[in-house]
Design goal:
63% of the residues lie in helices and 0% in strands. By secondary structure, it is mainly alpha-helical. The chain is elongated.
C-alpha cells in the first residue's frame, strides 16, 4: 500500500531537514544540564534545546524505513513523538547519552506506526512477528544475494531459526510483504471489456448452494421422522435411557440414570445396549443402510 508525498510535502520535508541539520550537536555536559533542568524543573526551553539537537537522529532513523511505502514526513513526525517520549523518561544520572537512549524510542515509534498503517490487515501482533517483519528483507538478501524470487522450505527454516519464529510465520509474513493490499473490486486484467472480472468474483464461497441447503433440510427432516418412528419400538425405560444418553448434547452418565431409575449403572448399560439393537432393527425396516443415511445407532 504505497503512499506518495505530494511535491509540496516533499519541499516541506527538505526545508525541515535542512533546518534540523543546522542545529549543532550537544556535548555530554550540556546534554546532561539540559536534561536535568527539564527533569527537575520542567524547563520547557531546556526540553526544546535538547530535542531540537537530535532531530537529525530522527531523520536518520526515519530514512531507514522509507522502503515501506509510507509518507516520509509521517515517519519523521512519528520519530519526533518517540523523541519526546524519550525526553520524558530520560534519567541523566544513569550516565547514558541521550542519543543512545532516544534511538530506541524513536525506532520503536516509527516501527509501531508502520505496523499500524502499512496494511489494512494487522501485521506483527507479537514481538517475534514484529522482528520478522522488519528483518525479513535483510535476511532474504543473504540468500543467493537476494536474487531468489520465492523462498524454498530450506530458506524459511533458515530465517525462522535466525529469528526464533516458526517457518509458517516466515511464509505468512513473506507473502504479506511480497503482495501488499489489493482491492477486491480491482479488475483481474486491464481489459477494456464491459464484463470485467473483479478479484472478489474469484473468491470461493464456503456456504452450501441453495439446492444443497434444500436437500440437507429435506434429509434432516426425513432422518428425524425415521428416528421418531423407531423410538416407538422402545418401552418407557428404554426410551428414557436413549433420550438421556443419545439424543442430548449433555448426555447423562450411567450412574446418574441408575440413581434416577433405581437400578445399577451396569443395568443401565445393558438396557441401553438392548434398546440400540431394537432401534437398528426398526430402522432396517425403513432404511437399507442406517449408517449411510447418517443414523448411527
Amino acid at each position: 500500500m504505497a503512499h506518495m508525498d505530494t511535491p509540496e510535502t516533499q519541499r516541506a520535508n527538505r526545508r525541515y531537514m535542512k533546518r534540523a541539520m543546522t542545529v549543532p550537536l550537544l556535548d555530554e555536559q550540556n546534554e546532561f544540564e539540559l536534561a536535568r533542568r527539564w527533569k527537575d524543573k520542567g524547563d520547557e526551553q531546556a526540553l526544546h534545546e535538547l530535542t531540537r539537537a537530535y532531530m537529525r537522529l530522527v531523520i536518520s532513523l526515519a530514512t531507514r524505513f522509507r522502503n515501506y511505502g509510507l509518507p516520509y514526513g509521517d515517519l519523521i513526525q512519528e520519530g519526533n513523538v518517540g523523541l519526546m517520549q524519550a525526553a520524558a523518561r530520560f534519567e541523566p544520572e544513569r550516565g547514558v547519552r541521550f542519543s543512545t537512549y532516544a534511538s530506541w524510542w524513536i525506532r520503536a515509534a516509527i516501527q509501531d506506526y508502520i505496523l499500524r498503517n502499512w496494511s489494512i490487515v494487522r501485521t506483527g501482533t507479537t514481538a517475534a512477528h514484529k522482528s520478522l517483519f522488519f528483518n525479513l528483507r535483510r535476511l532474504r538478501a543473504l540468500i543467493d544475494n537476494g536474487t531468489r524470487q520465492n523462498l524454498t522450505e530450506e530458506d524459511r527454516i533458515f530465517i525462522a531459526r535466525r529469528l526464533g519464529v516458526g517457518a509458517s510465520d516466515v511464509a505468512t509474513i513473506d507473502a504479506r510483504l511480497m503482495t501488499g493490499d489489493r482491492s477486491l473490486n480491482a479488475a483481474v486484467s486491464d481489459s477494456s471489456s464491459e464484463n470485467l472480472t473483479e478479484w472478489q468474483d474469484l473468491l470461493p464461497c464456503d456456504r452450501p448452494l441453495p439446492d444443497e441447503e434444500v436437500m440437507e433440510r429435506h434429509d434432516s427432516e426425513q432422518r428425524a421422522q425415521w428416528i421418531e418412528g423407531a423410538l416407538e419400538s422402545l418401552n418407557a425405560r428404554e426410551l428414557t435411557i436413549i433420550r438421556e444418553r443419545r439424543l442430548r448434547d449433555d448426555a447423562a452418565t450411567l450412574e446418574t440414570l441408575g440413581t434416577r431409575l433405581g437400578i445399577s449403572k451396569e443395568r443401565v448399560r445393558q438396557i441401553e445396549h438392548t434398546a440400540l439393537k431394537k432401534l437398528r432393527l426398526a430402522l432396517l425396516d425403513k432404511v437399507p443402510d442406517p449408517e449411510e443415511a447418517g443414523l448411527l445407532v
